[in-house]
C-alpha cells in the first residue's frame, strides 16, 4: 500500500473511482479539482503499481478545532483489505497535525461497511439527515470523533 498526497494530475484516476463508487451522486470533476487545490483540504491517493486504487480527503483549516472527512473511496476490487482504514487513519492524522480536536463525517445509512469502519475507529453517531443523499432518498448518518481521546487510546 502506498499512500501519497494527491495532485491535480490524479484527477482522472480519482474521478473514475468516484463515479464507480457513487453512481447516482458522484462529485463533479470541477468540485473535486477545487478540493484538490484548496489549501484547507488534504487529499491522499492509494496507489498500486502506479495506478490509483483509492483516495480520501479531509477538510481541516490550519489551527481550526474541527475537521470534516469529505470522502473516502476505493476501487471495488481493493475493498475489504484494510485500505479504507489506512486512508481514514492517515486523514485523521492530517487533521490532528493541523490542530483539529474533533472530526465529523456523513455516511450513507445504507453503507453498512463504511459505517462499521467508522464505529470501529471511534466515531459515534450524533444525528441523521433524512433523505440527504439524492436522488436515492437515503439518510445521512452524521458522526463525530474526538481526536484527543483517539490519541490517548493509541498504543
List the helices and strands and how they pair.
Layout: E1 2-5, H1 11-21, H2 29-37, E2 41-48, E3 51-59, E4 66-74, H3 83-97, E5 102-108, H4 112-120, E6 124-133, E7 138-146, H5 147-153
Parallel strand pairs: 4-5
Antiparallel strand pairs: 1-2, 2-3, 3-4, 5-7, 6-7
Can you tell me about this structure?
There is one protein chain. Helix content is 33%, strand content 36%. It has 155 residues and is of the alpha+beta class. The chain has a single domain (2-153), classed as 3-Layer(aba) Sandwich (Aminopeptidase). The chain starts with a strand and ends with a helix. It is globular, with a radius of gyration of 15 Å. A seven-stranded mixed beta sheet has the order 1-2-3-4-5-7-6, with helices on both faces. β3 (51-59) and β4 (66-74) form a beta hairpin.
What sort of overall outline do the alpha carbons produce when their principal axes are compared?
Answer: globular
Helix/strand/pairing class, anyone?
A: alpha+beta
Strand order of the largest sheet: 1-2-3-4-5-7-6
Quick check: average pLDDT? Answer: 93
- Output the number of helix runs: 5
Domain module count: 1
Rg, alpha carbons: 15 Å
Total strands: 7
User: In CATH terms, what is the fold-level topology?
Assistant: Aminopeptidase
Low-confidence stretches: none
CATH architectural designation: 3-Layer(aba) Sandwich
State the end-to-end CA separation: 22 Å
Output the helix-strand order: EHHEEEHEHEEH
Largest sheet: 7 strands, mixed
CATH class: Alpha Beta
The percentage of residues in β strands lies in 35-45%
